[in-house]
Write a structure and sequence with these properties.
Length: 638
Amino acid sequence: MKTIIGVTLVLALAFSARHATSGPTPATSPATSAPMGKAITRPMVSLGGQNTTLILRADGTCISPFALENKDYRDVASLVKDWKDIVSIATGYHNFWIGLKGDGTCVVTGKPAAIGGGVPGTSAVSTWTDIVAVSGGYDHSLGLESDGTVVVAGGTPEMAKEIAGWKDIAAIGAGFFYSVGVKSDGTCVAAGANTEGQCDVNGWKDIVAVACGSYHTLGLRSDGVVVCTVLKSNRRRAAARGQHMMENWTGAIDISNGGSQSAALRADGTVLDCGWFHQEIGVAMAWKDVTALAVGQLAVVGIMRDGSMKASHHWDSRELREMIESWNVGPESPDMPPRVPVGRSIRHPWPPKDWKPAPDGGKPIIERISKPDDIKPPREPNLVVDLGGGVTMKFVLIPAGSFVMGSEAFNEEATYGVHKVTLSKPFYVGVTEVTQEQWQRLMDGNNPSYFKGSQNPVDSVSWDDCQAFIAKFNKLKPEHKADLPTDAQWEYACRAGSASEYGYGDDANALGEYGWFGGNSQRSTHPAGDRKPNAWGLYDMHGNVWEWCRDIYTAPYGFDKVTYDPKKSEMVDPVSFEPGTATRMGLVLRGGCWASLAQHARSASRFRYMHFVRRSVVGFRLVLAAEQAQSRPATAGK
């Protein structure tokens, strides 16, 4: 599958009295303006193509850890060590980095063309003067001048001509062959490619900052609400990028766009995120006291108020993540004025007059996070397996039967291809996800989980790790023939005889009673079995952690046929897997997680990761063979 990879546009602001006082400005108190005659440097981070990371420290110098990723970048990364007096930074997709100095000039460097870098015209950035904000796009860079005009380096002549006519600009963003400017009155202008509606910002009002990506644009309103353009030619792709998730984003003070994923920094120091690979940055939703944030293609990096740093798994480069998290870029001073949104000029004082972001930013759909009062006692399991040391694993016998698999709700490509499935044999399913206690019992005490708790589901385990656990389980209990559930087995067990969006019905507002998701989890996993079970006695089929399945991921169903065949009216015991396919294709994940929106925790919802990926949002549960068991057939669906 060909994936279009976007860019991250993280930029900035900040500067001397020369910039702060040029042009007409609204009245503001001294506490919200830059000190007269003194440039302000705030720590910030920017991610570009291939997650190239550039970090600005409080002393005005820059560092980059990206040399660890590829020896070819070591000389490039070392170039930024000589930068001084930097007040803002930006990165572009083609691995060029821009530093804005306190005197309004810029420095630029990047990966040589010989190893995939180099953008024609980028060197012109070093000739800019009187700049108050910078932004890097796919093939071009933008510089905002103190008089409200914008200069361009790279890109097409047609786009440059359009941008030359912009005036009274207060903030900028460069994207995938397009650019957006925010005028001082809060309206927006755009130039360049508009293939998917990314330039449809003319109707926006009260905007203070923008972040541009591959095919969608984010806007930050002065009231802290985040708005987003809508992809116009492919609704499924829009759903995949999670743009609908931003409908209730409030309380934001900054935004970041990683191309196909998005994030917002809230006034309380927490993070909201979504997108095509939004689970990749789901770990950021557990961060607190964040003061600067940037998302990339498959990663997120944050700076805390004390100057410490956090990073997501960053393409599974643990060495790189640990290096970033070992740094401290300098703490935020208590008397610092409020941080200006990325890409905005300090020529326009911040915050705006009467700025009042919504105090409840990202209010949970389900406010009640305590255990439901009317939770039913657990159903007696059909099978209890003794793992030794007082640790057991409980299973419920699932009857053979037929159901309708998939859904076309929400226009999600991953669930398209609705089809009838028959499971001809009964099987046992774990009552809960595999817990950390159970994992440690078989894996010599090792606990890879990000969120610790003996009864919490084990997390941060790859598909390969699951195979190692299963091998040990089967060695201990060979009579049970343990495995991961197939894609079809998992959905059948989750539906528990229902044909609704969730195993309990269609009401998303009731989800918090049955599972831990983004609306009630407080950004963490919780003890397995702490919510209501479904009709077949299974817990946490919605939320807590995504669960690995045996199948390779195909979307829509039947796109890459193995035993799935959309031409057949009914499929019997389907499994989309062949030996060796796991090494080159993603594997199915089911059920949603603690970071998911309600719609991504539905019975039909599917996600995928490569077999080696470990994430704090991922766990698993087991199935056991039950060929000899007697059970009544069950039918789900219409």
